[in-house]
Specification:
about 270 residues; alpha/beta; 8 helices
Length: about 270
């Protein structure tokens, strides 16, 4: 494993991303530019998620440094997006059965975004381990920073905007988030996929359901570069305006590693 040392960690910020089979770590100085460090730690084995995290984190002791701030984003299919005015997390969970097929006890968590709330379920043992290990670290669902960031770049225009975030995890995941021409959120879903035609089907299905105009509206891609390139070519057969999302210049101040790190972790600090 690559050795990592951070001087004066209280002047640094750590953003952790928990995904199927991987723990992503992004760290950067809050007082100096071009300092970002990105590491991907493999999670595996038949142990529970919190045991896998425990093993990976204690094998990388720099993650336990006294950082000025730690944030955690979790990628899990057990979530639902509800209107901002629906404040009953238990009702949202029961209506959508977000934790109905989870094998273990879970804790319900909730993230507020400008136009909605994300209600989601996390393994209770994992939640307790994170709380013990990273004191006062906010824990978010991985789609929440996307919703917050896209809300800021989907301001009123003469076009609806459909954003697609591509993650090359195992299994692969794509987040599809659509806004109408007035900047109002119309749909936000995540799907697992294997072959490119599956991703194409999910994206075009959301376009159809939301009334997205394939000739005049705009589809923007972000996330894994290889997947973006492949799907851009495929989508261009069906949608006239397929564009890469402009990478936020504020994120680049931390260094070129921002291009390698998972996009939700890079933009999370920009969404405060």
């Amino acid at each position: 494993m690559e050795s990592t040392t951070i001087d004066s960690p209280h002047l640094w910020r750590l953003v952790l991303g928990i995904a199927p089979g991987a723990l992503h770590a992004v760290a950067f100085s809050t007082v100096a530019d071009a300092t970002m460090i990105y590491r991907r730690l493999t999670l595996g084995g038949s142990d529970s998620l919190h045991r896998q995290l425990e093993e990976a984190i204690y094998a990388a002791p720099w993650l336990l440094s006294d950082f000025g701030r730690v944030d955690i984003a979790v990628s899990t299919p057990y979530f639902t997006v509800v209107p901002a005015g629906l404040d009953d997390d238990g009702l949202a969970a029961s209506l959508t059965d977000i934790a109905g097929d989870t094998p273990d006890a879970v804790e319900l968590l909730s993230d507020s975004t400008p136009q909605c709330r994300v209600v989601w379920a996390l393994d209770a043992d994992c939640r307790r381990f994170l709380a013990r290990t990273f004191r006062n670290a906010p824990v978010h669902h991985a789609i929440s920073p996307l919703l917050k960031y896209f809300d800021t770049v989907s301001s009123a225009s003469n076009r609806a905007k459909l954003f697609v975030h591509l993650s090359d995890e195992t299994p692969r995941r794509l987040d599809i988030i659509e806004y109408d021409a007035s900047g109002c959120l119309r749909m936000a879903v995540s799907k697992e996929w294997e072959v490119d035609n599956d991703a194409l089907y999910y994206i075009l299905s959301v376009a159809e359901l939301t009334g997205f105009d394939r000739e005049n509206d705009e589809l923007q891609l972000c996330g894994d570069q290889t997947l973006r390139s492949r799907l851009s070519t495929l989508l261009s057969r069906y949608v006239r305006h397929v564009l890469p999302l402009i990478f936020p210049s504020a994120a680049l101040r931390s260094g070129r590693e921002a291009f390698r790190a998972p996009f939700p972790l890079v933009i999370l600090p920009l969404c405060e």
